[in-house]
Specification:
The protein is mainly alpha-helical. It contains 29 helices and no strands. The N terminus is likely disordered.
């Protein structure tokens, strides 16, 4: 419909934002002055312009005014629903779309919009049923398949999502958004090969899309292809040089390649772009820690903690650094904080147990080793440390039981057999001790040398040699 030349000139409605605002105010006055009936066609076109340029409150106002005149116009009800949806008035949008469909039940666009609203109202099953109704009407509509795919994707049903998204791309080979979402689904299924193929297809269609190159880089990182991932992140950065996440993940790739100085430079640039991302500062701390620069590592871990006061990993990492520089009190404080933030961290309990052991607090150390094992009962290293600590305080049976657990987890660990042998000697369980020594020597002959140094009088005993069948 043509607009009045009086208001718009050359029968064209200008898309200029400033002019649109002027026309909105002009027609609000026209309506207020009772001139709506002479301006219906112009207002109809103005409603569509409001929808296109996100003037939702104004568009809703005009749509409702026309609905007072045409209450049985399905398109106006659909437009009202769209404006309500954009204004997050989902209940009102839902009512509007239902009214529109009661007047025109076979309108696919209205069904699609209603499905989006139902999804926003967490009426997922209803949304899917609405989309399937639309599919019955228009089985070749790629947008319906795409929407079904994105709902499944959001709910973690990635295989089902891929089926719908593939169908969308079969109907429209240039449906770039469908390829993008499909790549994300494959990524979440750890199918990195298909994820790359799909993202590459997306990038053929959208070569200047920074997010596409970024996602491709993430897949390559997850697949351990760090050098290739850097190229993707560089392309994302070339397109959008303030893309903080791309800079950050480029730093991750460089760090994994051992290029720590380059990683630091890149991480610090990411931090300049996003000064409130605690993860960036945490990773800077990790690089400094890898370089044995504990002072700077502590500094950046502390910054991460200032940004996120419940950053468990940062407390734990800073605790290790404090431990390394001999600030045991501060290390203990950080380990305790980490434990308080997450009760199910075996690593935090283990770190604290090792520190307590170093400080000579053996009873506290045993308690923390046991807490760690409650969470991670299959950790042979912790069982071994627990066995050694029990041995130091003279809890021989507990020590033996812990060594037994070590052997159960790893039957080829010579040190566990040797430790158990020493405990068995103390418990006067000589035959079992001899059996453990034989196994230990068989697995690692070097332990014979250690044994000779620790027990020279036993090693030279003829009886002992006979028991070991060395004669």
């Amino acid at each position: 419909m043509d607009y009045s030349e009086e208001y718009f000139g050359d029968d064209e409605f200008s898309s200029d934002d400033k002019e649109l605002k002027v026309k909105i105010e002009e027609y609000r006055k026209v309506i207020a002055q009772g001139g709506i009936y002479s301006s219906i066609e112009i207002i109809e076109d103005l409603i569509h312009q409001c929808l296109e340029f996100d003037y939702n409150e104004d568009g809703l106002f005009f749509a409702e005014k026309l609905l007072e005149i045409y209450p049985y116009n399905s398109e106006l009800w659909q437009l009202k629903g769209n404006f309500c949806n954009n204004l997050l008035q989902f209940e009102e949008a839902y009512k509007s779309f239902n009214t529109s469909l009661s007047l025109n039940p076979f309108d696919v666009d209205t069904l699609l919009n209603k499905a989006h609203t139902e999804d926003n109202l967490e009426m997922t099953e209803d949304s899917i049923n609405t989309l399937k109704t639309a599919l019955d009407i228009d089985p070749q509509n790629e947008e319906i398949y795409f929407t079904l795919g994105t709902i499944c994707e959001r709910d973690g049903e990635y295989q089902e999502a891929i089926k719908y998204l593939v169908k969308a791309t079969e109907l429209d080979g240039e449906f770039s958004e469908a390829f993008y979402e499909m790549g994300y689904c494959y990524e979440n299924l750890n199918d990195f090969s298909n994820a790359l193929v799909t993202y590459d297809k997306f990038l053929e269609l959208e070569p200047y899309n920074a997010s596409g190159w970024y996602n491709r880089g993430i897949v390559l990182i997850r697949d351990g292809k760090y050098e290739k991932s850097i190229n993707s992140f560089d392309l994302a950065i070339t397109i959008k040089d303030d893309f903080a996440n791309a800079w950050f993940n480029k730093g991750i790739a460089l760090a994994n390649l051992g290029k720590l100085n380059q990683a630091l430079t890149v991480f610090k640039h990411a931090a300049e772009l996003d000064k409130n991302d605690e993860t960036i500062f945490f990773n800077i701390g990790q690089v400094y820690e890898d370089q044995d620069d504990m002072v700077n590592a502590i500094k950046y871990y502390s910054t991460a903690i200032k940004l996120e006061s419940e950053y468990y990993e940062a407390y734990l990492a800073r605790g290790y650094c404090y431990d390394a520089v001999g600030k045991y009190h501060l290390a203990l404080k950080d380990f305790n904080k980490a434990i308080s933030l997450t009760k199910d961290s075996a690593e935090a309990y283990y770190a604290k147990a090792d520190l307590e052991y170093s400080l000579g607090n053996l009873s506290e150390s045993i308690k923390d080793y046991n807490n760690s094992l409650k969470i991670d009962p299959g950790n042979q290293q912790v069982w071994f440390k627990l066995a050694e600590t029990y041995s130091e305080i003279g809890s021989w049976l507990e020590s033996k039981n812990a060594y037994d657990k070590c052997i159960e987890i790893n039957p080829d660990d010579a040190d566990s057999y040797y430790g158990k042998a020493k405990v068995c000697f103390i418990l006067l369980q000589t035959q079992e001790a001899i059996s453990c020594l034989k196994t230990s020597f068989k697995i690692d002959p070097e332990i014979k040398i250690e044994f000779a140094k620790e027990y020279p009088e036993i090693k030279s005993s003829r009886l002992f040699k006979k028991l070991l069948d060395e004669n």
